[in-house]
Amino acid sequence: MNAFAYRDGILHVENLSLVAAAERVGTPFYCYAAGELERRYRALAHAIAPARASIAFAVKANSNLAVIGVFAGLGSGADVVSEGELRRCLAAGVPAQRILFSGVGKTAGEIGHAIACGIGQINIESETEIDLVAQEARRAGRVMPVALRVNPDVSAGGHEKISTGRKTDKFGIAAEQAPAVYGRMAATEGLEAVGIAMHIGSQIHDVAAYGAAFTRMAEIAEDLRARGLPVPRIDLGGGLGVAYGEDETEMPLEGYGRLLAELKARTGAELTIEPGRWLVADAGVLVSRVITVKQAGNRRFVVVDAAMNDLIRPTLYDARHPVWPVVEAAEEDCHPGTVAGPVCESGDILAVDAPLPDLAPGDLIAIGKAGAYGAVMASSYNSRLLVPEAMVWDDRLEIVRRRPSFEEAMALDSLPDWQAQAGAA
Ligand code: LLP
Protein backbone atom coordinates (compact mmCIF):
# COMPACT_ATOMS: atom_id res chain seq x y z
CA MET A 1 0.00 0.00 0.00
CA ASN A 2 1.23 3.46 -0.89
CA ALA A 3 0.57 6.21 1.65
CA PHE A 4 -0.02 8.77 -1.12
CA ALA A 5 -2.50 7.59 -3.76
CA TYR A 6 -5.35 8.97 -5.84
CA ARG A 7 -8.86 8.14 -4.74
CA ASP A 8 -11.88 9.46 -6.65
CA GLY A 9 -9.47 11.65 -8.60
CA ILE A 10 -7.95 13.35 -5.55
CA LEU A 11 -4.52 12.66 -4.05
CA HIS A 12 -4.93 11.26 -0.55
CA VAL A 13 -2.53 10.83 2.32
CA GLU A 14 -3.66 7.60 3.92
CA ASN A 15 -7.45 8.15 4.14
CA LEU A 16 -7.49 11.92 4.08
CA SER A 17 -7.73 14.04 0.93
CA LEU A 18 -4.90 16.52 0.52
CA VAL A 19 -7.51 19.12 -0.45
CA ALA A 20 -9.02 18.81 3.02
CA ALA A 21 -5.57 18.78 4.62
CA ALA A 22 -4.57 21.96 2.76
CA GLU A 23 -7.74 23.73 3.85
CA ARG A 24 -7.02 22.88 7.45
CA VAL A 25 -3.30 23.73 7.55
CA GLY A 26 -2.91 26.35 4.82
CA THR A 27 -0.14 26.09 2.23
CA PRO A 28 2.73 25.46 1.98
CA PHE A 29 3.08 22.62 4.49
CA TYR A 30 4.76 19.28 4.95
CA CYS A 31 2.44 16.33 5.41
CA TYR A 32 3.63 13.03 6.87
CA ALA A 33 1.90 9.66 6.78
CA ALA A 34 2.29 8.01 10.18
CA GLY A 35 1.36 4.57 8.81
CA GLU A 36 4.10 4.76 6.19
CA LEU A 37 6.70 5.67 8.82
CA GLU A 38 5.67 2.57 10.75
CA ARG A 39 5.65 0.30 7.71
CA ARG A 40 9.12 1.37 6.69
CA TYR A 41 10.55 0.98 10.18
CA ARG A 42 9.07 -2.51 10.46
CA ALA A 43 10.35 -3.55 7.01
CA LEU A 44 13.89 -2.45 7.87
CA ALA A 45 13.75 -4.00 11.34
CA HIS A 46 12.65 -7.26 9.74
CA ALA A 47 15.49 -7.20 7.20
CA ILE A 48 18.17 -6.69 9.84
CA ALA A 49 16.68 -9.06 12.42
CA PRO A 50 18.96 -12.00 11.49
CA ALA A 51 21.96 -9.80 12.37
CA ARG A 52 20.22 -8.76 15.61
CA ALA A 53 21.23 -5.23 14.63
CA SER A 54 19.54 -2.25 16.23
CA ILE A 55 18.27 0.91 14.59
CA ALA A 56 19.30 4.39 15.71
CA PHE A 57 17.17 6.72 13.57
CA ALA A 58 19.36 9.54 12.20
CA VAL A 59 17.26 12.40 13.49
CA LYS A 60 18.91 14.91 11.16
CA ALA A 61 16.68 13.59 8.36
CA ASN A 62 13.52 14.64 10.20
CA SER A 63 13.55 15.88 13.75
CA ASN A 64 9.88 16.70 14.24
CA LEU A 65 8.91 15.44 17.70
CA ALA A 66 5.95 13.51 16.27
CA VAL A 67 8.17 11.71 13.73
CA ILE A 68 10.78 10.82 16.34
CA GLY A 69 7.87 9.77 18.55
CA VAL A 70 6.60 7.24 15.98
CA PHE A 71 10.00 5.55 15.87
CA ALA A 72 10.51 5.77 19.64
CA GLY A 73 7.19 3.98 20.01
CA LEU A 74 8.50 1.17 17.81
CA GLY A 75 11.63 0.77 19.92
CA SER A 76 14.08 2.80 17.85
CA GLY A 77 17.17 4.44 19.25
CA ALA A 78 18.50 7.68 17.78
CA ASP A 79 21.65 9.08 16.21
CA VAL A 80 22.02 12.78 17.04
CA VAL A 81 24.53 15.42 15.99
CA SER A 82 23.70 18.34 18.25
CA GLU A 83 22.29 19.24 21.64
CA GLY A 84 19.11 20.38 19.90
CA GLU A 85 18.57 16.95 18.38
CA LEU A 86 19.39 15.27 21.68
CA ARG A 87 16.80 17.36 23.51
CA ARG A 88 14.21 16.55 20.87
CA CYS A 89 14.83 12.80 21.19
CA LEU A 90 14.48 12.86 24.95
CA ALA A 91 11.31 14.95 24.66
CA ALA A 92 9.89 12.47 22.13
CA GLY A 93 10.52 9.52 24.43
CA VAL A 94 13.73 7.92 23.14
CA PRO A 95 15.48 6.35 26.16
CA ALA A 96 18.81 8.12 26.79
CA GLN A 97 20.67 4.82 26.74
CA ARG A 98 19.55 4.28 23.14
CA ILE A 99 20.92 7.61 21.91
CA LEU A 100 24.30 7.96 20.26
CA PHE A 101 26.01 11.22 19.49
CA SER A 102 27.98 11.65 16.23
CA GLY A 103 29.46 14.74 14.63
CA VAL A 104 32.78 16.12 13.55
CA GLY A 105 32.76 19.20 15.80
CA LYS A 106 30.95 18.64 19.07
CA THR A 107 31.49 21.40 21.62
CA ALA A 108 32.45 20.83 25.26
CA GLY A 109 29.05 22.15 26.28
CA GLU A 110 27.22 19.67 24.07
CA ILE A 111 29.37 16.78 25.23
CA GLY A 112 28.86 17.71 28.89
CA HIS A 113 25.11 17.90 28.38
CA ALA A 114 25.02 14.53 26.59
CA ILE A 115 26.98 12.87 29.39
CA ALA A 116 24.73 14.41 32.03
CA CYS A 117 21.69 13.01 30.19
CA GLY A 118 23.21 9.53 30.33
CA ILE A 119 23.27 8.80 26.59
CA GLY A 120 24.54 5.40 25.46
CA GLN A 121 27.49 6.26 23.23
CA ILE A 122 29.55 9.11 21.84
CA ASN A 123 31.24 8.57 18.50
CA ILE A 124 34.68 10.15 18.59
CA GLU A 125 35.72 11.80 15.34
CA SER A 126 39.08 13.39 16.12
CA GLU A 127 41.99 12.96 18.49
CA THR A 128 41.27 16.11 20.43
CA GLU A 129 37.76 14.86 21.06
CA ILE A 130 39.20 11.99 23.13
CA ASP A 131 40.47 14.50 25.69
CA LEU A 132 37.35 16.62 25.51
CA VAL A 133 34.97 13.72 26.20
CA ALA A 134 37.27 12.33 28.91
CA GLN A 135 37.44 15.70 30.63
CA GLU A 136 33.66 16.11 30.62
CA ALA A 137 33.14 12.50 31.78
CA ARG A 138 35.52 12.93 34.71
CA ARG A 139 33.87 16.21 35.60
CA ALA A 140 30.52 14.40 35.71
CA GLY A 141 32.07 11.50 37.65
CA ARG A 142 31.13 9.02 34.93
CA VAL A 143 32.74 6.58 32.56
CA MET A 144 31.51 7.37 29.06
CA PRO A 145 31.16 4.62 26.42
CA VAL A 146 32.85 5.84 23.24
CA ALA A 147 33.26 4.46 19.72
CA LEU A 148 35.87 5.61 17.23
CA ARG A 149 34.64 6.73 13.83
CA VAL A 150 37.00 5.32 11.28
CA ASN A 151 37.12 6.13 7.64
CA PRO A 152 36.99 2.94 5.57
CA ASP A 153 38.02 4.87 2.43
CA VAL A 154 35.09 3.66 0.37
CA SER A 155 33.55 6.20 -1.95
CA ALA A 156 29.77 6.09 -1.93
CA GLY A 157 26.78 8.36 -2.01
CA GLY A 158 24.63 10.06 -4.54
CA HIS A 159 26.20 13.49 -4.70
CA GLU A 160 29.57 15.10 -4.12
CA LYS A 161 28.16 17.04 -1.15
CA ILE A 162 26.85 13.94 0.67
CA SER A 163 29.72 11.48 0.22
CA THR A 164 31.70 11.13 3.44
CA GLY A 165 33.73 7.92 3.46
CA ARG A 166 36.69 8.88 1.32
CA LYS A 167 40.13 9.41 2.75
CA THR A 168 39.98 13.08 1.88
CA ASP A 169 36.64 13.73 3.59
CA LYS A 170 36.58 15.61 6.88
CA PHE A 171 34.92 12.79 8.82
CA GLY A 172 36.47 10.13 11.01
CA ILE A 173 40.00 8.84 11.55
CA ALA A 174 42.00 7.20 8.74
CA ALA A 175 41.99 3.39 9.04
CA GLU A 176 45.83 3.28 9.34
CA GLN A 177 45.66 5.48 12.42
CA ALA A 178 42.86 3.48 14.05
CA PRO A 179 45.02 1.16 16.22
CA ALA A 180 47.01 3.99 17.79
CA VAL A 181 44.03 6.25 18.33
CA TYR A 182 41.77 3.45 19.56
CA GLY A 183 44.49 2.32 21.94
CA ARG A 184 44.81 5.80 23.35
CA MET A 185 41.03 6.07 23.69
CA ALA A 186 40.87 2.74 25.54
CA ALA A 187 43.63 3.81 27.93
CA THR A 188 42.05 7.16 28.80
CA GLU A 189 40.51 7.51 32.24
CA GLY A 190 36.83 8.39 32.06
CA LEU A 191 36.30 6.57 28.75
CA GLU A 192 35.26 3.04 27.90
CA ALA A 193 36.17 2.13 24.32
CA VAL A 194 33.17 0.15 23.08
CA GLY A 195 33.74 -0.07 19.36
CA ILE A 196 34.17 1.44 15.95
CA ALA A 197 31.78 3.42 13.77
CA MET A 198 31.55 4.40 10.11
CA HIS A 199 29.29 6.33 7.76
CA ILE A 200 30.37 6.31 4.14
CA GLY A 201 27.79 8.61 2.62
CA SER A 202 24.15 9.14 1.91
CA GLN A 203 21.78 8.07 -0.87
CA ILE A 204 23.72 4.84 -1.55
CA HIS A 205 22.09 2.52 -4.10
CA ASP A 206 24.78 -0.07 -4.58
CA VAL A 207 24.90 -2.72 -1.90
CA ALA A 208 28.47 -3.53 -2.99
CA ALA A 209 29.65 -0.26 -1.43
CA TYR A 210 28.41 -1.54 1.93
CA GLY A 211 30.00 -4.92 1.20
CA ALA A 212 33.41 -3.30 0.78
CA ALA A 213 33.02 -1.03 3.81
CA PHE A 214 31.75 -3.80 6.12
CA THR A 215 34.70 -6.00 5.17
CA ARG A 216 37.03 -3.14 6.00
CA MET A 217 35.29 -2.68 9.37
CA ALA A 218 35.63 -6.41 10.14
CA GLU A 219 39.35 -6.23 9.34
CA ILE A 220 39.82 -3.18 11.54
CA ALA A 221 37.94 -4.85 14.42
CA GLU A 222 40.01 -8.02 14.06
CA ASP A 223 43.23 -6.04 13.99
CA LEU A 224 42.26 -4.13 17.16
CA ARG A 225 41.25 -7.34 18.92
CA ALA A 226 44.53 -8.98 17.96
CA ARG A 227 46.21 -6.11 19.80
CA GLY A 228 44.19 -6.94 22.90
CA LEU A 229 41.70 -4.10 22.50
CA PRO A 230 38.04 -5.04 23.01
CA VAL A 231 35.63 -4.09 20.20
CA PRO A 232 32.17 -5.16 21.39
CA ARG A 233 30.16 -2.85 19.09
CA ILE A 234 30.23 -1.82 15.44
CA ASP A 235 28.14 1.11 14.19
CA LEU A 236 27.57 0.96 10.44
CA GLY A 237 26.10 4.44 9.90
CA GLY A 238 23.25 5.22 7.54
CA GLY A 239 23.07 6.03 3.85
CA LEU A 240 20.43 3.67 2.47
CA GLY A 241 19.24 5.16 -0.79
CA VAL A 242 15.69 5.84 -1.87
CA ALA A 243 14.31 6.19 -5.43
CA TYR A 244 13.52 9.84 -6.14
CA GLY A 245 13.28 9.31 -9.89
CA GLU A 246 11.95 6.38 -11.88
CA ASP A 247 15.48 5.61 -13.06
CA GLU A 248 16.66 5.08 -9.48
CA THR A 249 16.22 2.04 -7.26
CA GLU A 250 15.98 1.77 -3.49
CA MET A 251 18.71 0.05 -1.54
CA PRO A 252 17.73 -3.64 -1.71
CA LEU A 253 16.94 -4.50 1.91
CA GLU A 254 17.57 -8.21 1.58
CA GLY A 255 21.09 -7.77 0.29
CA TYR A 256 21.83 -5.18 2.97
CA GLY A 257 20.42 -7.44 5.69
CA ARG A 258 22.51 -10.33 4.44
CA LEU A 259 25.72 -8.28 4.62
CA LEU A 260 24.91 -7.31 8.20
CA ALA A 261 24.27 -10.95 9.11
CA GLU A 262 27.64 -11.90 7.61
CA LEU A 263 29.37 -9.16 9.57
CA LYS A 264 27.63 -10.36 12.73
CA ALA A 265 28.75 -13.95 12.08
CA ARG A 266 32.31 -12.84 11.39
CA THR A 267 32.78 -10.45 14.32
CA GLY A 268 30.12 -11.34 16.89
CA ALA A 269 29.87 -7.61 17.62
CA GLU A 270 26.65 -5.82 18.57
CA LEU A 271 25.66 -4.01 15.38
CA THR A 272 23.85 -0.69 15.06
CA ILE A 273 22.74 1.14 11.93
CA GLU A 274 21.86 4.84 11.62
CA PRO A 275 19.36 5.19 8.77
CA GLY A 276 17.70 8.54 8.23
CA ARG A 277 16.46 9.14 4.69
CA TRP A 278 15.23 5.60 4.00
CA LEU A 279 12.84 5.68 6.95
CA VAL A 280 11.23 9.04 6.25
CA ALA A 281 11.67 10.26 2.63
CA ASP A 282 8.69 8.41 1.15
CA ALA A 283 6.43 9.21 4.09
CA GLY A 284 6.28 12.96 3.43
CA VAL A 285 5.12 15.44 0.80
CA LEU A 286 5.35 19.20 0.58
CA VAL A 287 1.92 20.55 -0.36
CA SER A 288 1.85 23.84 -2.21
CA ARG A 289 -0.63 26.04 -4.07
CA VAL A 290 -0.14 27.51 -7.52
CA ILE A 291 0.20 31.30 -7.49
CA THR A 292 0.58 31.87 -11.20
CA VAL A 293 1.58 30.16 -14.41
CA LYS A 294 3.76 31.94 -16.94
CA GLN A 295 5.51 31.14 -20.15
CA ALA A 296 9.17 32.17 -20.57
CA GLY A 297 10.39 31.27 -24.03
CA ASN A 298 9.41 27.67 -24.46
CA ARG A 299 9.44 26.95 -20.74
CA ARG A 300 6.22 26.82 -18.73
CA PHE A 301 6.84 28.12 -15.20
CA VAL A 302 4.41 27.07 -12.50
CA VAL A 303 5.03 29.51 -9.66
CA VAL A 304 3.90 28.08 -6.35
CA ASP A 305 3.81 29.26 -2.73
CA ALA A 306 6.55 26.87 -1.58
CA ALA A 307 10.15 27.83 -2.26
CA MET A 308 13.80 26.89 -1.90
CA ASN A 309 13.72 28.02 1.72
CA ASP A 310 11.10 25.33 2.42
CA LEU A 311 12.79 22.57 0.38
CA ILE A 312 16.42 23.31 -0.49
CA ARG A 313 17.36 19.89 -1.94
CA PRO A 314 16.69 20.68 -5.64
CA THR A 315 18.70 23.92 -5.42
CA LEU A 316 21.53 22.52 -3.32
CA TYR A 317 21.98 19.02 -4.75
CA ASP A 318 20.10 19.16 -8.06
CA ALA A 319 17.74 16.66 -6.43
CA ARG A 320 14.78 15.60 -8.52
CA HIS A 321 11.63 15.22 -6.46
CA PRO A 322 8.47 13.97 -8.16
CA VAL A 323 5.62 16.49 -8.43
CA TRP A 324 2.03 15.31 -8.36
CA PRO A 325 -1.04 17.42 -9.13
CA VAL A 326 -3.49 16.97 -6.25
CA VAL A 327 -6.35 16.63 -8.75
CA GLU A 328 -5.52 13.55 -10.82
CA ALA A 329 -4.65 14.09 -14.48
CA ALA A 330 -4.36 11.64 -17.35
CA GLU A 331 -0.82 11.11 -18.59
CA GLU A 332 -1.71 12.41 -22.06
CA ASP A 333 -2.89 15.69 -20.52
CA CYS A 334 0.49 16.33 -18.89
CA HIS A 335 3.30 18.39 -20.41
CA PRO A 336 6.53 19.77 -18.96
CA GLY A 337 6.18 22.35 -16.24
CA THR A 338 9.01 23.89 -14.21
CA VAL A 339 7.94 24.45 -10.64
CA ALA A 340 9.42 27.62 -9.17
CA GLY A 341 9.05 29.39 -5.86
CA PRO A 342 8.61 33.10 -5.14
CA VAL A 343 12.10 33.65 -3.67
CA CYS A 344 14.22 36.23 -5.45
CA GLU A 345 16.85 33.84 -6.81
CA SER A 346 16.92 32.13 -10.16
CA GLY A 347 17.97 28.96 -8.31
CA ASP A 348 14.60 28.84 -6.58
CA ILE A 349 13.37 25.92 -8.66
CA LEU A 350 11.64 22.93 -7.05
CA ALA A 351 11.35 20.75 -10.16
CA VAL A 352 12.50 21.09 -13.75
CA ASP A 353 10.18 20.02 -16.56
CA ALA A 354 7.93 17.84 -14.42
CA PRO A 355 5.00 16.24 -16.26
CA LEU A 356 2.06 18.35 -15.12
CA PRO A 357 -1.42 19.09 -16.48
CA ASP A 358 -2.63 22.61 -17.18
CA LEU A 359 -2.67 24.34 -13.82
CA ALA A 360 -4.33 27.54 -12.69
CA PRO A 361 -3.85 29.83 -9.68
CA GLY A 362 -5.23 28.11 -6.59
CA ASP A 363 -4.57 24.55 -7.77
CA LEU A 364 -2.67 22.28 -5.41
CA ILE A 365 0.45 20.24 -6.08
CA ALA A 366 2.38 17.85 -3.87
CA ILE A 367 6.15 17.50 -4.06
CA GLY A 368 6.87 13.87 -3.29
CA LYS A 369 9.53 12.06 -1.25
CA ALA A 370 10.01 15.15 0.85
CA GLY A 371 9.94 13.53 4.28
CA ALA A 372 13.74 13.45 4.58
CA TYR A 373 15.96 16.55 4.70
CA GLY A 374 12.95 18.71 3.86
CA ALA A 375 11.51 20.56 6.85
CA VAL A 376 14.76 20.16 8.82
CA MET A 377 16.69 22.15 6.22
CA ALA A 378 14.05 24.85 5.88
CA SER A 379 14.90 28.47 6.64
CA SER A 380 13.02 31.72 6.74
CA TYR A 381 14.97 33.28 3.86
CA ASN A 382 13.16 36.26 2.33
CA SER A 383 11.46 36.58 5.76
CA ARG A 384 9.10 33.82 4.79
CA LEU A 385 7.47 32.03 7.70
CA LEU A 386 9.01 28.70 8.66
CA VAL A 387 6.99 25.97 6.97
CA PRO A 388 4.54 24.02 9.17
CA GLU A 389 4.24 20.23 9.41
CA ALA A 390 1.22 17.97 9.75
CA MET A 391 0.92 14.25 10.46
CA VAL A 392 -1.90 12.06 9.26
CA TRP A 393 -3.00 8.79 10.80
CA ASP A 394 -5.76 7.11 8.79
CA ASP A 395 -8.15 10.06 8.26
CA ARG A 396 -6.98 12.11 11.25
CA LEU A 397 -4.69 15.09 10.83
CA GLU A 398 -2.68 16.75 13.57
CA ILE A 399 -0.60 19.88 13.05
CA VAL A 400 2.71 18.79 14.57
CA ARG A 401 4.54 22.04 13.97
CA ARG A 402 2.50 25.17 13.53
CA ARG A 403 3.30 28.09 11.31
CA PRO A 404 4.73 30.92 13.42
CA SER A 405 3.11 34.35 13.31
CA PHE A 406 5.04 37.26 11.81
CA GLU A 407 5.36 38.70 15.32
CA GLU A 408 6.97 35.48 16.55
CA ALA A 409 9.27 35.38 13.56
CA MET A 410 10.46 38.91 14.33
CA ALA A 411 10.55 38.54 18.11
CA LEU A 412 14.15 37.29 18.25
CA ASP A 413 15.44 40.50 16.64
CA SER A 414 15.81 43.71 18.55
CA LEU A 415 17.00 47.21 17.77
CA PRO A 416 20.24 48.40 19.36
CA ASP A 417 19.71 51.12 21.98
CA TRP A 418 21.13 53.88 19.83
CA GLN A 419 18.67 53.13 17.01
CA ALA A 420 15.72 52.80 19.36
CA GLN A 421 16.63 56.17 20.94
CA ALA A 422 17.08 57.81 17.57
CA GLY A 423 13.67 56.48 16.61
CA ALA A 424 12.12 57.89 19.79
CA ALA A 425 13.72 61.33 19.35
N1 LLP B 1 24.92 8.83 10.30
C1 LLP B 1 25.76 9.85 10.06
C2 LLP B 1 27.00 9.93 10.84
C3 LLP B 1 25.46 10.79 9.07
O1 LLP B 1 26.29 11.79 8.83
C4 LLP B 1 24.24 10.67 8.32
C5 LLP B 1 23.89 11.65 7.30
C6 LLP B 1 23.38 9.59 8.63
C7 LLP B 1 23.76 8.69 9.61
C8 LLP B 1 22.09 9.38 7.91
O2 LLP B 1 22.24 9.20 6.55
P1 LLP B 1 21.00 8.76 5.65
O3 LLP B 1 20.56 7.39 6.09
O4 LLP B 1 19.93 9.74 5.87
O5 LLP B 1 21.51 8.79 4.27
N2 LLP B 1 21.06 16.80 3.43
C9 LLP B 1 21.47 15.73 2.53
C10 LLP B 1 21.87 14.48 3.27
C11 LLP B 1 22.99 14.70 4.26
C12 LLP B 1 23.31 13.48 5.04
C13 LLP B 1 24.31 13.76 6.13
N3 LLP B 1 24.60 12.66 6.99
C14 LLP B 1 20.33 15.48 1.55
O6 LLP B 1 19.32 16.17 1.61
O7 LLP B 1 20.44 14.60 0.68
Write the SSE topology.
Blueprint: E1 4-7, E2 10-13, E3 16-17, H1 18-25, E4 29-33, H2 34-48, E5 54-58, H3 65-73, E6 77-80, H4 83-91, E7 99-101, H5 108-117, E8 121-124, H6 127-140, E9 144-151, E10 173-174, H7 178-187, E11 191-197, H8 207-226, E12 233-235, H9 253-267, E13 270-273, H10 277-280, E14 284-296, E15 299-304, H11 313-317, E16 323-325, E17 335-340, E18 349-356, E19 364-367, E20 389-393, E21 396-401, H12 406-410, H13 417-424
Parallel strand pairs: 4-20, 5-6, 5-13, 6-7, 7-8, 8-9, 9-10, 9-11, 11-12, 12-13, 15-17
Antiparallel strand pairs: 1-2, 2-3, 4-14, 14-15, 14-19, 16-19, 17-18, 20-21
The structure holds ligand LLP.
Defining traits:
425 residues, binds ligand LLP, 13 helices, eight-stranded parallel β-barrel, nine-stranded mixed beta sheet, Lyase, Ornithine Decarboxylase, Chain A, domain 1, globular, alpha/beta
Q: Can you walk me through this structure?
A:
There is one protein chain. This protein has 425 residues and is an alpha/beta fold. The protein folds into two domains: 4-31 and 283-410, Lyase, Ornithine Decarboxylase, Chain A, domain 1 (Beta Barrel), CATH 2.40.37.10; 34-280, TIM Barrel. It contains 13 helices and 21 strands. It has helices spanning 18-25, 34-48, 65-73, 83-91, 108-117, 127-140, 178-187, 207-226, 253-267, 277-280, 313-317, 406-410, 417-424; strands spanning 4-7, 10-13, 16-17, 29-33, 54-58, 77-80, 99-101, 121-124, 144-151, 173-174, 191-197, 233-235, 270-273, 284-296, 299-304, 323-325, 335-340, 349-356, 364-367, 389-393, 396-401. Strands 4, 14, 15, 16, 17, 18, 19, 20 and 21 form a nine-stranded mixed sheet that branches. The chain has an eight-stranded parallel barrel with strand order 5-6-7-8-9-11-12-13, surrounded by five helices. The longest helix is centred in the middle third of the chain and has 20 residues, at 207-226. The protein is globular, with a radius of gyration of 23 Å. It starts with a strand and ends with a helix. The structure holds ligand LLP. Residues 58, 60-61, 79, 102, 162, 199, 202-203, 237-240, 274-278, 313, 317, 373 line the site of ligand LLP.
